[in-house]
Amino acid sequence: MSQPTDNQPIANQRSSVRYRSRLMQSEAERHADTHPLTWRLRDDGAVVWLDEHLHKNGYQSVRKALDAGDPQAVIATMKEANVRGRGGAGFSAGLKWSLTLQGDDIPRGYLICNADEMEPGTFKDRLLLEQQPHLLIEGMILGAYANNAFYGYIFLRSEYVQAAQVLNRAIDEAREAGWLGANINGSGFDFDIAVHTGAGRYICGEETALLNALEGGRANPRSKPPFPGQSGAWGKPSVVNNVETLCNVPGVVLNGADWYQGLSGERTDDGGTKLYGVSGPVENPGLWELPIGTTGAELLDRARGMRGNHQLKAWLPGGASTGFLLPEHLALPLDFDTVGKEGSRLGTGLMTVVPQAQSMVSLMRNMEEFFARESCGWCTPCRDGLPWSVKLLLALEHGEGEPGDIELLDKLAADCGPSLTFCAHAPGAAMPLQAALKHFRHEFEQGVKKPRGEMHSTTMTHEQ
């Protein structure tokens, strides 16, 4: 497909304190067949309420699926389209749905939307939540129908006050119009939704920790198996999907898998579009819906490059829990597999740029402080390893590091790697640290104290 030519972002995040999901890209430049996530958005940034959503083909996918009366066909279409999870993991949503226990002797379960969006550097779901709530509700109805769920929850971070207000009103609208509740569209299918605001914990991005929090417990991850699709919320089959993932479902069901596959760029095997974003010292930070497989260079170009005299030093492709990439990696297609082969992850697809003047030691200390604070404390490598790495980074940041500290950081990061901890929190914290140590080791070495004799020798040479 041809890519949009404008550089105006859908949403602009110049101020992180007074952020507003303002539509910056003209409606005339977004079309239903190329921009399934954003074509309904308004130029004035106002909410697309039910009447307008219906006027723009809203709930037609629900009508089509319920009239067909075949939930397994919805799952088959999702698998064929290969809608990969947009929350960061990139797992096939259709495959995930196919693993949900169903049958006459299996109780109906839950469909949960993860709207916590706690990943640092990520602000894409907020746009959908605040301006296009009925697209999410539509996707949740389809997900519930495919997975035999009788109730849905939108697990929302408590700071998203405006999103909560918008979602609750939209749910009331949908319920009053017969799109939620009993006997939806005369199909005999019952499903309803409630908004649940969380307490603001990063660990709730892990789906089983989210389920524990939803039930009113401590947000610790669960041992698996059983997986949520077999025993999730309150012991019933449950599916957890990200906001953007669920917002893709109506378009896939209405237009088919081949259409969805045709939306992506030629340089990738992934399908669909992606809400990409750029933040940091760039001229035009914001969000764009682009074909998945768009390169980092194209994305940075849409952000109009680095601001002022800043030069690009490194960049995170999808939030703080992804590995740093270098300027030479900008030519890579930003899809799940390509970025993974470079030792990083696509994550949420929100690029964070790092300027040359930024100390990588200070940046990593700040990031690891966040991850250490957000650890649930359930397993030793995460509970003890992350605070230990913060202490070492603080010492290196202030030039008080000891010989062997960098090697110890290497070991701590390795000990927090995949399959060595209870969930993916610690591996996510370790990935940017490992990349920083690999690409910018000399900056860490500068923080190691020099022996007294070496310091004296250096001083004498300078005086001479």
Layout of helices and strands:
Blueprint: H1 50-55, H2 60-68, H3 71-81, H4 93-98, E1 109-115, H5 124-131, H6 133-147, E2 149-156, H7 161-176, E3 192-197, H8 207-214, E4 238-242, H9 243-255, H10 257-262, E5 273-279, E6 286-291, H11 296-302, E7 312-316, H12 336-341, E8 350-355, H13 360-374, H14 380-397, H15 405-415, H16 425-439, H17 441-445, H18 452-463
Main attributes of the structure:
464 residues; alpha/beta; Rossmann fold; Ubiquitin-like (UB roll); de novo design (two linked rop proteins); four-stranded parallel β-sheet; four-stranded mixed β-sheet; 18 helices; globular; disordered C terminus
CATH homologous superfamily caption of the largest domain? NADH-ubiquinone oxidoreductase 51kDa subunit
Strand content: 5-15%
Total DSSP E strands: 8
Write down the domain tally: 3
Indicate the radius of gyration in whole angstroms. 23 Å
Largest sheet composition: 4 strands, parallel
The low-pLDDT segments are 1-5, 13-24, 456-464
- The global form is globular
Q: State the share of residues found in helices, binned by percent.
A: 40-55%
SSE order, one letter for each helix or strand = HHHHEHHEHEHEHHEEHEHEHHHHHH
Mean pLDDT score, rounded? 90
CA(first)-CA(last) distance:
67 Å
Overall structural class, as computed from helix and strand content, comes to alpha/beta
Order of strands across the widest beta sheet?
A: 3-2-1-4
If you consult CATH, what is the topology of the largest domain? Answer: Rossmann fold
